Amino acid sequence: MTIATTDAVPAAVPTELARGRGGGGPAPKRIVVAYGFWIFILSDIVMFSGLFAAYAVLSGNTAGGPTGRELFDLHNVFIETMCLLFSSYTCGLGALSAERRHSGRFLIFAALTFVLGAAFLLIEATEFAGMVAKGAGPSRSGFLSSFFTLVGTHGVHVTGGLIWLVYLVAQVVAKGLRPAVLRRLLCWSLFWHALDIVWVGVFTLVYLMGDFR
Amino acid sequence: MDGPDRVFDDRTPGVEHEESTANFPSYTAGLALAILATIASFIVSQTHLLWPPGIPVGLVVLAFAQIGVHLVFFLHLGSAPDNTNNILALAFGVLIVFLVITGSIWIIANLNANMMPMPR
Predict the structure, then answer these.
(1) pTM of this prediction?
(2) Comparing A161 with B7, which gets the higher pLDDT?
(3) CA-atom Rg of chain B in angstroms
(4) Which is nearest to A147 in space by CA: A82, A210, A81?
(5) At A175, is the secondary structure helix, strand, or coil?
(6) Distance from A130 to chain B by nearest Cα, in Å?
(7) Most B-contacting residue of A33, A88, A120, A202 (CB-CB within 10 A), to test interface
(8) Each residue of B88-102: pLDDT tens digit?
(9) CB contact (8 A) between residue A21 and residue B84
(10) A126-132, long-range: CB < 8 A, 24+ apart
């Protein structure tokens, strides 16, 4: 062996190991798009952390008004949690079917996800309306302002996620499961799973910590 | 020798050629673990299974466990080389979230403790 031959034939780059650490050539677009969207999700979670901090600071300031213990109905919260959890599951199965190009199964899972998300929103809207009717609206106390801001912002995200899902289903129907549509679906499923993660924080900090025995 | 294509493994950016690691059993396992963690935290908050002053700590631990389950089984964060950047970004996000939340609670608790008594 001479130096000339090793120059002519460079050692094979172990691409499977090198990817993500600067070697092995450009990453597939799927990885790059998911990374960019992951950065957005993290910034969204940083925004939520501000709302969580505000709630943690203000949750004791009830200004003589109702406390969380009097207002929260944990049965509803449990049903809401299960709705969101199962919608995350059906969303994952939908993403899986889309990846394997089963558009019929994808549409079924998308419909299930939508129904579960809408059920979550319905329960939350009923809870909010009941609280406002009892005179415990967002203007009653610092506790309730921060409660409505935190839980309401999460609800707005869920609403946005449902609208986005309808838009994506229309794209799947019109354009089929082509790579660009699959990447949009990937971003949407990341968004939906992230909302479920934020909800874990909400039901733990707001509902369970506000109402434990 | 093999051709240069074998050696360099050229790819065109944007060409989809790999399946993700997701599959049906991993989602189902994630769902089962998440349901377990959820039920556990509701039970912990409503009973005296835990020493009562320790309940908030127990709830926080269960929440972190559930978030971990979601990250691994639903968002597929793992130790694969493709995931290195995602993990680093997540670590930075967690740092910021930790600073914002604990910093706010700490500072405001300090201000509260130093407040003059309010005139009634």
Answers:
(1) 0.85
(2) A161
(3) 23
(4) A210
(5) helix
(6) 23
(7) A88
(8) 999 999 999 999 999
(9) yes
(10) A126/A76, A127/A73, A127/A76, A128/A152, A131/A71
